[in-house]
Design brief:
The protein is α/β, with parallel strands linked by helices and 430 residues long. The protein is built from 16 helices and 13 strands. The strands form four sheets. It has a four-stranded mixed sheet with strand order 1-4-5-13, sandwiched between helices. Strands 6-9-11-7 form a four-stranded antiparallel sheet. A three-stranded antiparallel sheet has the order 10-8-12. Helix 10 links the parallel strand 4 and strand 5.
């Protein structure tokens, strides 16, 4: 007889689970017969002792089969999605989805909330007044068919197991497990009914995979599972040893995404977005110069129009996207360089946790987010600074939280006496 106790004990002792056992654990937690505390213990055992590739496939299959799978094969174009393994300042989905839709692709995107020190796409979209992230499958399909892009959260119909487990992993510090990451990512993507998937697998001190080797290992695992389900797969390994873009937070990242969709924005976020987009156009066999096609969609307003259209279809206010008074913070604090030199290290994990401290992320599942919480960087890794130069500005709506976050930020950034080489943003394309 299978019991949660035995499942936990077996994984603590590094024993393998059968397909039946994993299905029992996933289904039991989903229907409520297995409580949070036992699922937490099992997740912790998996976190420390991992699962084999075959166990990971069983786990992914159980997650997929916990709900319905969409069929979008009737759409007159390539159906693709993108997934990032999570980083600080990573707002690529908000830009890439509309950009690909502007190029004729269909992008049904099921996204998640913040996980640990990393921000969540759903949290950012919900900062847009009126934007609904919980839709019926019928409405989701209608918006994808009409606009080419829809971003929403899991429903009770799509991967309900992942929705519950994802939230539990966030607050039990069991995020950085290859098997759990793979199951969470691929179950949602397979259930979306897509034909292709582009992966942004991040590595560095602000990523769940800290080394390029671990990132490649995860990319390979995700790719193998995707191919097994008939998907075209591509992966890009990108650096996360500093925040991506100049803004980190909730609303501040929406505003930076809007800026980039309007043809502006920081060079690093633009580069990552364009590299991922080119992989999607390549697998969709779109003819022509892909880089030029994408640049045109950004510069002529087509991509931004798609984003606005999606926001409207989800009930959001397009006027709010360019209103400086929306989600404005009550308190701000500048972090200044204490000596001349170069920014030689950024602890990106601490930077992400400082956002959580300010209310831009969750400590417990029921925490309400402060959409105004964020950080704007004026100088990042490798930049030269003089004493008194502003490195970044932190802001939120609670002064005590801001004070604690400022201490964390100050410890997370160091200035060195010697210049340092810039970080390589795109590490590998697979």
């Amino acid at each position: 007889m299978i019991t949660p106790f035995q499942m936990i004990r077996n994984k603590q002792n590094r024993l393998s689970h059968s397909e039946e056992e994993i299905l029992y654990m996933v289904d039991g937690f989903t229907d409520g017969s297995i409580p949070d505390y036992q699922m937490s213990a099992w997740l912790m055992a998996v976190y420390f002792n991992d699962m084999s590739d075959i166990e990971t496939r069983y786990y992914t299959k159980a997650m997929v089969n916990s709900g319905k799978r969409l069929d979008l094969s009737y759409l007159p174009g390539f159906v693709v999605d993108k997934h990032s393994t999570g980083g600080v300042g990573d707002k690529v989905s908000l830009i890439l989805g509309p950009l690909l839709a502007a190029c004729g692709l269909y992008v049904p995107m099921l996204s998640g909330r913040g996980l640990g020190h990393t921000g969540g796409t759903l949290d950012k979209l919900e900062a847009i007044p009126g934007y609904r992230t919980q839709l019926s499958l019928e409405e989701f399909q209608r918006i994808v068919e009409k606009t080419g892009i829809s971003i929403m959260g899991q429903t009770k119909d799509i991967c309900p197991a992942d929705k519950k487990i994802y939230a539990l992993r966030d607050v039990t510090s069991t995020v950085a497990s290859l098997s759990l990451i793979c199951g969470s990512i691929m179950s949602k993507k397979i259930a979306e009914g897509i034909q292709g998937l582009v992966l942004d697998v991040k590595c560095g001190n602000g990523a769940f995979m800290t080394t390029p080797e671990d990132a490649r290992k995860l990319a390979n695992l995700l790719t193998e599972v995707g191919i097994e389900y008939g998907l075209k797969m591509a992966s890009v390994i990108t650096d996360m040893n500093q925040p991506l873009g100049n803004n980190v937070g909730v609303w501040s990242e929406v505003r930076e995404s809007v800026d980039l969709l309007q043809g502006n924005g920081p060079a690093d976020i633009r580069e990552v977005t364009l590299v991922l987009a080119q992989q999607a156009l390549k697998m969709a066999q779109i003819p022509g110069d892909h880089h030029s096609l994408l640049e045109t969609a950004l510069s002529d307003g087509t991509a931004y129009a798609k984003f606005e259209e999606m926001v409207i279809e989800h009930g959001g206010s397009p006027e709010a996207l360019n209103d400086p008074g929306v989600n404005s913070p009550k308190f701000t604090h500048e972090i200044m360089a204490q000596k001349d030199g170069w920014i030689g290290h950024m602890d990106t994990y601490k930077i992400g946790m400082s956002i959580v401290e300010m209310g831009g992320g969750r400590i417990i599942q029921t925490d309400k987010l402060d959409n105004s919480a964020g950080i704007t960087f004026y100088n990042k890794f490798g930049h030269s600074v003089k004493t008194g130069d502003v490195i970044c500005t932190a802001y939120c709506s609670t002064e005590s939280k801001l004070d604690r976050a400022v201490k964390m930020l100050s410890d997370a950034i160091s200035v060195t006496d010697e210049s340092v080489e810039e970080l390589e943003l795109i590490i590998d394309i697979r």
